[in-house]
User: Fold this.
Amino acid sequence: MADEQLKREIDAYVDEVWEDVVADIASLVAVESVEDMAAAREGAPFGPGPREALDRALAMAARMGLDAHDLGGHAGYAELKGASERQLAFVEHLDVVPAGDGWRHGPFELVREDGCLVGRGVRDDKGPAVLSTYAVRFFREGGRTPSHTLRVVYGVNEETHMADMDYYLAHEPMPAFAIVPDTEFPVCYGEKGCYWADVASAPLGPDARIVEASGGIVANAVPDSAYAVVRADAAALPAAERIKVEPAGEGLARVEAAGVAAHASKPQGSVNAILVLVDYLRAHGIASPEERAFLDLEHEVLGSWDGSGIGIAASDDDFGPLTIVGGMLRLRDGRLVQTVDSRFPATVTAERITGAIESAAERCGAEVEVTPDPDPLYRIDPAGEQVRILTDAYNEVAGTHARPFTTGGGTYCRKFAKAAGFGIGGQEFEVPSWVGAQHGPNEGLREDALKQALRVFILALARLMRTGV
Assistant:
């Protein structure tokens, strides 16, 4: 089939199914599919929300005539058998991060406003999951039999541990090539190493002035809010930018800090509310000696998003600069506990990051607990055939000249032998200022960017099936 005829068929198909696409995105967005291990059970190993989202996705795929399979709630997939067992797979996730505050509308209702679709998961990753399923459905229309077997894999644990893909790959064959739409167009061919740790202060002791402390809702995002209840006279605490102070009871003050949220992999331009709070407490002496030592450590480790505060700033041509952020602060069992998230290039190792944090922590008696990542870096050949096909498909449909790139985000790509990030960013589609990014309030995308993405997915699949992939 000539590509021009194929493109006309794709355009007609997208127009025909679009309202169904929006309805299916709305169905998935309506589920608060946040991991809840306290409510986990057989068949719902990550909690009831992810289970419900998986049920809805599988029902959607079955309605389209695809073979839908549930892997005990760990993951699922929808398949269209091809002339060959050689498999091309979209790999998506249906779990989301907690909604947090600051939403213009309810986070779990899909809103159509100002040319955008808005709701938790529209961008990350429920919207792409629906588009991928409709892309596969295209090749079932008119009795076609694709040359390859096509799958859409639905994960439900990407935002925390990716245990879903470990289970999936232990029970299902590795695809010849995986497309992971959990990034931006045109193609992401590599991902930085991911590093996570918890840093806990020494016991704060009886002289502690911090009674409560909390900041952030997930470890992998720059938080836009944080607060501490401290032993102080609220009336005596001065006003400050991004700080709100109010009485919290006799001899107590509540200090609230406001920031600008961002994904942990892209902290440039963000404002970490935890650091705003930390620096206010430091500046006004609201801390015991033990608390002050830990607050100083916070500033040293997290005060510069590039790691220069502890001497680990680094960059390379493929991956760009190292980033380091603190996503969550909690007061737990008499200790302040801070999460650390770093995304690092090939010129740095996790061991070097640990050494730098531990060296700083030792000076104030803090302890560091590192979460090991067995897959620190992921990269495929940016000049390879699959990357070229995906890039060309996007540029033709979008009318751009975008080039492949790498990211600091960690996606399912690193779980597969050969995979590329190929997802909905579409910088040419500007959104109103109130529409947010993934992991933040008012997560959303322009509706025409989503429609364009469906066209791109179908064209890219058609071309991949012409190759020996």
Observations:
- Residues 115 and 446 are 6 Å apart (CA to CA).
- Residues 3-29 form the longest helix (27 residues).
